[in-house]
Amino acid sequence: MSFNISNQIPSSRRKRRQHLFSRDIEQLLFSLGDGPYSSEQTVNALEDTLTLYLTSLCHAALKHARAQGRNRIKIDDLPFALRNDPYKLSRLEYIINQSQRIEKAKKIFDNNVVSHLQTFNEEDDDDQLEGNGGKSQQNPKPRRKKRKQVPDVKQAEHSDDDDDNDGDNSA
């Protein structure tokens, strides 16, 4: 994918930009060995390049979507826009594949948790009916564990001091 220099953002619009990626770019630069505070010019230059790249990528995807008769971009339009860059295309396909696997795992997990909870609720209902002579109990109170009482160290020291004095206040 090539950049068209003639399609760059005019300088008047460049002054009003929102700095969408500044913090992320600074963190990325730091992770790659830059100092804790990156030069503002470096961050701005990288942000301009990233913004131009994403804009041209979205325009290419939109062009493909319009050729398909749609006005909105779908995730399926991005591989067409990246078809000339095999590394980025393979990375995009990997990310899409992983996203689908995660969604599938979430659905399986949610179904298992719901069915697992239902079986526990049915078992609890059966236990309640058996334990109450056939009467179901509404909102049973949870049983609390009894705390072990630990003697307070300060009180124990004071009581020992009182025993040593045997009521004598003389020193």
From TrEMBL:
Coiled coil: none
Chief location of this protein within or outside the cell: nucleus
Record region (Disordered): 121-171
GO annotation, cellular component aspect: transcription factor TFIID complex
GO molecular function: protein heterodimerization activity
Signal peptide: none
Location(s) in or outside the cell: Nucleus
Gene Ontology biological process: RNA polymerase II preinitiation complex assembly
Keywords: Nucleus, Transcription, Transcription regulation
A Pfam family: TFIID-18kDa
Amino acid composition bias (Acidic residues), ranges on this chain: 159-171
Keyword Transcription part of the UniProt annotation: yes
Similarity section: Belongs to the TAF13 family.
Protein name per UniProt: Transcription initiation factor TFIID subunit 13
Organism: Pichia sorbitophila (strain ATCC MYA-4447 / BCRC 22081 / CBS 7064 / NBRC 10061 / NRRL Y-12695)
This protein's encoding gene: Piso0_000265
